[in-house]
Amino acid sequence: MPSVVVRDVSLNFGSVEVLKSLNLEVGRGEFLVLLGPSGCGKSTLLNCIAGLLDVSQGQIFINERNVTWDEPKDRGIGMVFQSYALYPQMTVEGNLSFGLKNARLPKDEIATRIARAAEILQIEPLLKRKPLALSGGQRQRVAIGRALVRDVDVFLFDEPLSNLDAKLRSELRVEIKRLHQKLENTMIYVTHDQIEAMTLADRIAVMRGGIIQQLDTPQAIYSRPVNRFVAGFIGSPGMNFIEGEVVGGAAPAFDAGGIKVPLDRYEFGDGGARGGKAVFGVRPEHVALGDAAAAMPCQYDVEVEIVEPMGSDTLVWGKFAGQNLSFRVETERAVSVGDRVRIGFDPGRASLFDADGGERI
């Protein structure tokens, strides 16, 4: 049974359509990530669910209750914002208890909830400190704790880690994952960082222009993106795109400037492969080099143009059919600019997109 349901929701700011007839169901206990570039509507959708923005059209249900026009405090949600939004004059304990006191909860209940949240988030030693005496990561833990003490079924996170440095982001990402596993509450998380999305989510909703482009598990979106936009947004670095055309017939192939990639492992449906312009997509990590390339169905020679050491591996850039192609190699393997190397890949792990609409073929 779904915990949150968004039904035909649209939001307009004057003549600007921000959300366009969105439909979304979030399962009970699910961790759903809203992912997309700035301006795609992900934070707007979260704010509509929270009640911070009124929808222009449609309905929102939380735990089977229509909350479309309910006040935020009456929706049974806890929200963590991008900014910590802590009261500087209050201690950590005061920040955690503020909302509970306003709700007139008994003192014993408030103390129990604060103690539980502090234990889960490992902030017990910080309860008597004020926000100015805390690090960025500690402040964000307190902000999460403030939502946690509300003891609600649905938590909403609006890019909570974007103000932190890379190391703290990584650490708190793990803590949020642990928190979800421990609480088993429904969580909806907004981010533009695809690594956060891939590591945290049970499912990802990739958004663009106020529309959900694809809603699926992280692995399904990574392996079978529905269009070129999703394929390019997921992955770091993104998927390689080679422009060319499909040559149909008994032995269909993708032709890019005379370099052909066989497509016999693709399923084109009853009509078979149709000729025409197309875009071939292959991820850098699926391109092999050297001995590993010899075992691949397709092999080509590439001249190295750029070498980027990444620590755990090295990202190499070259030209394939006159177009940019990146691939990963082991750190121990010496690759230099100007080298001519043998690469290979399995077309079965690649994607093929329509050149005009960008949809997956």
Summary, kept brief:
It is built from nine helices and 20 strands. The protein is α+β, with helices and mostly antiparallel strands and 361 residues long.
The total strand number stands at 20
Helix count, DSSP H or I runs of 4 or more residues: 9
CATH H level, superfamily name of the largest domain: P-loop containing nucleotide triphosphate hydrolases
What coarse outline follows from CA principal-axis ratios?
Answer: elongated
Q: Helix/strand/pairing class, anyone?
A: alpha+beta
Q: How far is the first residue's CA from the last residue's CA?
A: 33 Å
Largest sheet: 6 strands, mixed
Helix percentage: 10-25%
Order of helices and strands: EEEHEEEHHHEHEHEEHHEEEEEHEEEEE
Number of domains: 2
CATH C-level class of the largest domain is: Alpha Beta
- Spatial order of strands in the largest sheet: 6-7-8-3-9-10
CATH topology of the largest domain: Rossmann fold
Specify Rg, calculated over alpha carbons. 25 Å
| CATH 2nd-level architecture of the largest domain | 3-Layer(aba) Sandwich
Pfam families: ABC_tran (PF00005), OB_MalK (PF17912)
Protein name: ABC transporter ATP-binding protein
GO molecular function: ABC-type transporter activity; ATP binding; ATP hydrolysis activity
Subcellular location: Cell inner membrane
